[in-house]
Design a protein that fits this description.
The protein is of the alpha+beta class. It has 25 helices and 16 strands. The strands form 6 sheets. It has a 4-stranded antiparallel beta sheet, with helices on one face. Strands 5-9-8-16 form a 4-stranded mixed beta sheet, covered by helices on one side. α3 packs across α19, α6 packs antiparallel against α7 and α9 packs antiparallel against α10. The protein is globular and about 105 Å long. One of its GO terms (molecular function) is histone deacetylase binding. One of its GO terms (cellular component) is cytoplasm. This is SET domain-containing protein.
Length: 651
């Protein structure tokens, strides 16, 4: 993948820079052997065309607009009055994004209305959060009693009676302080009702609370790596994952959060910048409209780390044509403070696998030694990639990332290194999208992320795993039997079932710099379209555990076929009987039905059971095994992030 597209200004900038170099300078650059040298060389010469780089930080609050925000709020108020809660929420979300930070009162009033909508949608925690924010923005004191009463009733619904009593007390306090224009008799009646209600809730707190389950806190993420997965290395394969014990289909072997993740521009307004979840209740940066968040936690995570440096620059980076590779390379830096990289600087050249394997996924040293293939790219490619690193380093300087506020060659070198690490190790983060429920789905990339453990899985054109995503979390399941000691392979794009070997190898050589030698390539397995369905590949049943394929033509009347490897005669009739008694077609149809009705775990178990029987009798490649794998892939994808444009039957 390239670091920029041809449509942005960086492409032209790179061309102009290249024209300034003499033949001698090009030869000097080509002779350099390290990324440190390459970055220093280009960084020294980039000033020749610095005026051709329209890189600038947008002005604070660019995109914010009070007039437009109030227009969306009015539309939300109409929808609220009409009981159209979903429409109102969308309008209020848009208004909140556009409201300038200095318009605190307008934000407070807007959040009050959005809180009412969220309550109607039974999003109690989100409604409480909006009430707290409205109070924080300076909600009018003479109207605060309304907010505190709403908070009290929400806590009462949640059976958090202690908090409900505290909020009712606040309600009474503000009603006494600010009578809100009620006639004295009505005010006295209201206060009396609230005091009685407070006493009732307090009684519940004292006498019922002890019988209730304690409130459940937010469950922290638990990473998972199956004990049967072992990481090994060799000269030819590099580092790779293999099975320490036999793995069966449908085993969850890995669940991992990314080291870093970045959204594609087209999803920056619909998905959370921090966790990639679809936005229901919008939170945002107070200074720009380039990113949105799904919760206060994600907003805090983003604005206190990477976005404080990227704010105001995302627009110009998108305009430059910088691809997701470049944006993710930058994010790896901006999510940590500059001092962090300075502290580990001396360790980077001496890192070993035994040391980095013990580190958490968010540690930069964990991903530093991932493959870069810097020695396999042409000098012209290296020149463009290095120039991109200088542009990203300029962003860091302009954002005052380092304490000195100057360009830092060490950070520039890391950016160049990151570009290569991301290009060969990052994964697309996908979401299953449908226009209507029960329609065929499309798996669509919404961003990219770097997963330190997943990155070590090597490629096969006949992969043994499938990956799917919930937000930025990746889940990995097996989709075939994997023998102990065998490589656990994923797929980098081309599958043998869809693409001929020559095309697959060309694609992998171009994009990943290696020639594939997986079983499907070594034996030149046919694509599904070219498989001979009249020939069955039975597994040899010889006493020496040969397990080699024994080919049987369905048009043959023979009941036994000799194995060409060990000479054992396989009883074909008995093998066919096993398949018939297993009722493969019936089981496959049952699995498909379970998938159609949304019982994905049960469908996975059915598909896996069919595959276990087939694996005992047959040797791949064969179409039925692939169909079961496809069924498992569909189930897994639908267990991940999904989006339906029109959830109801209305178009």
């Amino acid at each position: 993948m390239e670091v920029s597209s041809e449509t942005g200004y960086f492409h032209q900038y790179a061309k102009k820079f290249r024209r300034t170099l003499t033949a001698q300078e090009v030869d000097q650059f080509a002779a350099l052997t390290t990324d440190r040298e390459r970055f220093a060389f280009v960084n020294e010469l980039k000033w020749r065309v610095v005026n051709e780089l329209p890189l600038e930080q947008s002005s604070p609050a660019k995109g914010k607009c009070l007039e437009k925000a109030l227009k969306h709020k009015c539309e939300g108020d109409r929808a609220l009055g009409d009981g159209e809660w979903a429409v109102a929420l969308k309008c209020y979300n848009r208004a909140y994004l556009l409201l300038p930070e200095e318009n605190a009162l307008e934000k407070a009033l807007l959040l009050d209305n959005r809180s009412q909508v969220l309550l109607q949608l039974t999003k109690l925690d989100e409604s409480l959060a909006d009430i707290d924010r409205a109070i924080g923005y300076g909600y009018p004191p003479d109207q605060l009693a309304t907010l505190w009463e709403r908070k009290a009733r929400i806590f009462q619904t949640k059976k958090d009676f202690k908090s409900a009593v505290e909020c009712y007390d606040k309600t009474i306090h503000y009603l006494q302080q600010y009578p809100t224009g009620l006639p004295p008799e009505q005010l006295a009646q209201k206060l009396d009702e609230l005091k009685k209600l407070t006493d009732t809730v307090y009684y519940q707190y004292k006498n019922v609370q002890k019988y209730l389950e304690p409130p459940k806190g937010t469950r922290s993420f638990q990473p998972h790596l199956d004990g049967a997965v072992l990481y090994d290395s060799s000269e030819t394969e590099g580092r790779f994952a293999k099975a320490k014990a036999a793995l069966r289909p449908n085993q969850l072997i890995l669940r991992e959060k990314p080291h870093a993740a970045a959204l594609l521009q087209e999803y920056s307004g619909t998905h959370c910048s921090d966790c990639f979840e679809r936005i229901e209740v919008l939170y945002c940066c107070p200074h720009c409209v380039d990113v949105v968040f799904c919760s206060e936690r994600c907003e805090r995570n983003g604005c206190e780390s990477y976005h404080r440096y990227e704010c105001g620059f995302l627009g110009t980076l998108w305009a430059s044509g910088a691809t997701i590779v470049s944006l993710l390379a930058l994010r790896i830096i901006t999510q940590k403070p500059c001092a962090y990289f300075e502290e580990i600087r001396h360790e980077l050249p001496e890192l070993s696998a035994s040391m980095t394997d013990k580190l958490p996924d968010d540690d930069y040293r964990k991903i530093f030694n991932l493959v870069t293939h810097s020695d396999k790219r042409t000098p012209e490619d290296n020149l463009v990639w290095t120039l991109m690193a200088t542009m990203l380093n300029t962003v860091l300087r302009m954002a005052n990332y380092s304490a000195a506020g100057e360009e830092n060659n060490f950070l520039g070198y890391l950016l160049l290194h990151n570009l290569q690490v991301v290009n060969y190790n990052a994964h697309d983060v996908s979401e299953v999208q449908r226009k209507h429920a029960n329609e065929p789905a499309l798996s669509v990339a919404v961003g990219a992320a770097l997963y330190p453990l997943l990155a070590l899985f090597n490629h096969s054109c006949d992969p043994g795993i499938v990956r799917y995503f919930t937000g930025t979390t990746v889940h990995v399941r097996t989709i075939k039997n994997i023998a102990a000691g065998a490589i656990i392979a994923e797929n980098y794009g081309p599958l043998y079932t869809r693409m001929a070997r020559s095309e697959r190898r060309q694609s992998l050589a171009t994009n990943y710099k290696f020639e594939c030698g997986c079983e499907a390539c070594a034996a030149d397995w046919p694509t599904c379209a070219n498989m001979n369905h009249a020939v069955i590949r039975f597994r040899c049943t010889g006493p020496d555990a040969c397990h080699r394929p024994v080919l049987y033509d369905l048009h043959s009347s023979s009941q036994g076929v000799r194995c060409g490897a060990c000479g054992h005669i396989v009883d074909v009739g008995e093998r066919i009987r096993i398949l018939r008694e297993a009722n493969m077609i019936g089981r496959f149809n049952e699995a498909n039905h379970l998938y159609q009705v949304g019982m994905y775990e049960q469908a996975l178990a059915k598909y896996a059971a069919i595959m276990l029987i087939m694996d005992e009798v047959l040797v791949p490649p064969y179409r039925d095994y692939h169909m079961c794998q496809q069924g498992m892939r569909r189930c897994c994808l639908d267990m991940g992030s999904c989006y339906v444009s029109y959830p109801t039957s209305e178009k």
